[in-house]
Design the sequence.
């Protein structure tokens, strides 16, 4: 009996083959008929061109794109690697800025019930706002589309980090805080050597949720601001009616999103502890 | 009037009872500890033993009264008082060794890395854990965790050690083994220890004096019972001492029949009781030191 992993992998691959096979069959052009209808003749026999491309066409395109991901042939023709790099750069910049704000403020809110009560109403109002709703205001104030996209990432990734940090810090076991107190640790030392490691798993959970949301939002933000990035790329290929490229870039968005999540997952493993 | 190492004067704790009134858990607690004494405190649940210990640790505040150690009033926690909590309170993300290193570094910030490590390892060896230096608390049994916690407290060499029912969560066999270890470490270091327990045998094995608390609310430390059994003691042989049975009978009788109504002396100090007077087969050296401390306590009380 093969191990569970081997059996799962086999099953996964057969699902993939089945799905690709169905997709391929469903998207075959109809067999050439002896005569075209008058309408088809008027349309120049263009019917099969507007079908969803079969997986074989997507794979062929993917191969071509991925074998030269970083070419740059002008504003509207850049390699998929360059577009993804733009998006990742924006996500990471906005995300790091959010971290720089969310972690200290989260700490403050978690440590001080007064600050929690004072700031909580604002957080509750600001948190449910769709990040894209900030876009017009950001464009007007910042007057730069690239920085506006980064701002939108910043604003959407700040909330899970902020709330999880506050929650993690507020729920550090009193016993551990007492250990710090009986050993006369300074407030800074207590924060760094006891509260931070104790709350780290909760904080990392917030950071992992944030990076997921940031990656969801960047695609939409780039569709709006245009110019570069994977979101712009998808929209541009849609305007070109190049559906194979659209499908290919959708898959790439998934792959990069998964990699970002995996990276945060690894970081989470590093700070986890068992009681 | 001679000053004792630790003096507790008129301590009381009042909580709101949730119906607009007040609930006095304990009141007018008065006692003194001498340097090098091992004192246990026994009482039924709810009499406020843990609160008294937390006040001594500086983790809780009394509603009235004060605690003076070495002539200085205790306000807030400090490194000169080490605490062993019932639930071990080890930092789970640190290894066994680093849990001790953490405390030793806090106590002596200017020690070199090697010195800190060597000192920490020495105390882990004392509790027989030198094979588990790099394991995390989650990989240790309850007994081993409590050993680490005890090693941490002794390693910082506090002037007063506070043990809050340290063996309460352990099974009887493990408890016995660690009691033996605690006896051994204490014989080596002769630190001043104040310990809460529910276990009469444990109290007799470990302490020089045992404080008996009456029931809460309005609990008092009613009696101070002298344990007249010479050191070093061992769990396996202590019951052969006739003083052991006298003392044990006295303690059990108090806890079963008298803890509801017992009161201290009129001046608020615990009544001094020597249930095994005359039957003790005590060695001259330890007898003398115990008499000394008892005399000192009497002097303070008077």
Sequence:
């Amino acid at each position: 009996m093969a191990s569970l992993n081997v059996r799962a992998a086999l099953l996964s691959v057969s699902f993939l083959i089945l799905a690709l096979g169905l997709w391929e069959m469903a998207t075959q052009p109809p067999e050439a008929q002896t005569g075209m209808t008058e309408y088809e003749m008027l349309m120049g026999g263009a019917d099969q061109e507007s079908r969803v491309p079969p997986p074989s066409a997507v794979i062929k395109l993917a191969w071509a794109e991925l074998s030269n991901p970083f070419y740059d042939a002008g504003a509207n023709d850049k390699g998929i690697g360059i577009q993804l790099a733009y998006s990742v750069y924006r996500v990471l910049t906005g995300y790091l800025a959010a971290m720089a704000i969310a972690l200290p403020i989260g700490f403050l809110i978690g440590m001080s019930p007064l600050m929690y009560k004072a700031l909580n109403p604002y957080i509750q109002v600001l948190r449910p706002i769709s990040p894209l709703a900030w876009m017009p205001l950001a464009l007007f104030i910042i007057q730069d589309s690239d920085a506006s996209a980064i701002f939108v990432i910043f604003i959407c990734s700040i909330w899970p980090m902020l709330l999880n940090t506050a929650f993690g810090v507020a729920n550090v076991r009193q016993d551990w805080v007492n250990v710090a107190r009986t050993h006369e640790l300074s407030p800074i030392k207590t924060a760094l050597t006891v509260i931070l490691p104790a709350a780290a798993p909760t904080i990392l959970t917030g950071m992992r949720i944030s990076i997921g949301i940031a990656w969801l939002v960047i695609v939409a933000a780039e569709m709006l601001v245009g110019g570069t990035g994977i979101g712009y790329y998808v929209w541009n290929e849609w305007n070109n009616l190049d559906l194979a490229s659209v499908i290919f870039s959708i898959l790439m968005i998934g792959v990069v999103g998964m990699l970002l999540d995996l990276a945060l997952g690894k970081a989470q493993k590093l700070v986890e502890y068992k009681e | 009037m001679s000053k004792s190492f630790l003096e507790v004067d008129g301590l009381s704790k009042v909580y709101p009872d949730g119906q607009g009134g007040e609930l006095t858990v304990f009141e007018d607690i008065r006692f003194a500890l001498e340097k090098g004494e091992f004192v246990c405190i026994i009482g039924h649940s709810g009499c406020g033993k843990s609160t008294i210990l937390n006040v001594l640790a500086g983790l809780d505040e009394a509603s009235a009264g004060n605690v003076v150690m070495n002539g200085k009033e205790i306000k807030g926690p400090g490194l000169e008082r080490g605490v062993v909590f019932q639930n071990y309170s080890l930092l789970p993300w640190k290894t066994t060794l680093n849990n001790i290193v953490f405390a030793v570094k806090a106590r002596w910030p200017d020690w070199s890395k090697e010195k800190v490590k060597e000192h920490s390892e020495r105390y882990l060896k004392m509790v027989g854990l030198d094979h588990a230096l790099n394991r995390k608390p989650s990989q240790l049994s309850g007994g081993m965790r409590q050993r680490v916690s005890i090693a941490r407290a002794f390693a910082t060499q506090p002037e007063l050690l506070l043990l809050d029912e340290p063996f309460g969560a352990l099974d009887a066999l493990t408890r016995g083994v660690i009691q033996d270890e605690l006896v051994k470490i204490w014989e080596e270091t002769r630190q001043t220890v104040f310990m809460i327990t529910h276990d009469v045998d444990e109290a007799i094995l470990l302490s020089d004096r045992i404080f008996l608390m009456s029931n809460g609310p309005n609990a008092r430390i009613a009696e101070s019972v002298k344990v007249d059994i010479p050191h070093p003691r061992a769990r396996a042989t202590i019951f052969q001492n006739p003083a052991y049975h006298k003392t044990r009978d006295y303690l059990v009788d108090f806890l079963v029949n008298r803890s509801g109504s017992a009161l201290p002396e009129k001046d608020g100090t615990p009544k001094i009781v020597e249930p095994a007077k005359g039957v003790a087969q005590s060695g001259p050296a330890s007898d003398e030191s115990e008499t000394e401390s008892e005399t000192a306590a009497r002097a303070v009380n008077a």
In short: Residues 88-157 of chain B form one domain. DSSP finds eight helices and eleven strands in chain B. Chain B has two domains: 6-80+160-301, 88-157. Chain B touches chain A at residues 57-59, 76-79, 81-83, 85, 87, 89, 91-93, 102-103, 106-107, 136-138, 156 (CB under 8 Å).
